[in-house]
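haha ok so turns out i had the wrong file open the whole time. this is the CORRECT one, sorry everyone. sequence first:
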Amino acid sequence: MVEQFKLHFMKKLYALAMAFFAIITVSAQLAVQVTAPGVVKLTYGASNDYSIYGPGFEVPTFWIHVWSSAGDNSTGTMYDDSWGNSNVTMNWDATASAYVGTIDLNTKVFTNGNKVFAAGTTVSNLGFVFKNQQNGATQQSGDLLASDFGFTPTTLVVLGTDNTARAKKSFVSNGKLYTSHQGNIALTIFEMSGKLVKSFTSAANGDAIDLNVEKAGLYLVKITRGTETEVVKFAK
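then structure:
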């Protein structure tokens, strides 16, 4: 009886050790971290293990198909990308020796319906798929859940009240854009449906820029200066 008990105990211990090893291995392959309210950083392949998804030899970029199920955010609504229009990428980072990507849920447009989370939304989980093409895929990973790789619930920035966010990025208040960008910038304003409202250029010098949006609603303004791009969500 004692020997049987020892054998049973050793089997249990071995199973627990293997499960723990599997968790460590998966975590080493892919890490999903919330780095700021609504900002999610993904790091993949730092352990040189690409068994979740093989991007191919020296491929610099691949895409992420992203969704949040109705039960995984405080709106109770499904937000997802169109399979034929992914807008988040994983890019090779030589410093990290890994692929790194960022999903900014404060500004991300979910391309199936061009929906954007409202400010103050709490997101408790994300689903995603790695894939090799923006408009579809000939190679892809299985469905992945961010919570399996370190993601923790996050609440999106509340527009006009987060001073930390204001210090780091552009924001809109009372219909005027405040930005740290300097020089000529291109501004493109969209309705949340994706419909273009207007596009114009402005000389940014630290003063407020009047966006001249007349109709009440929720909008996105895309700010472009050279190769730098920023998208800001605002309400009129």
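The first helix runs from residue 2 to 29.
again sry for the mixup
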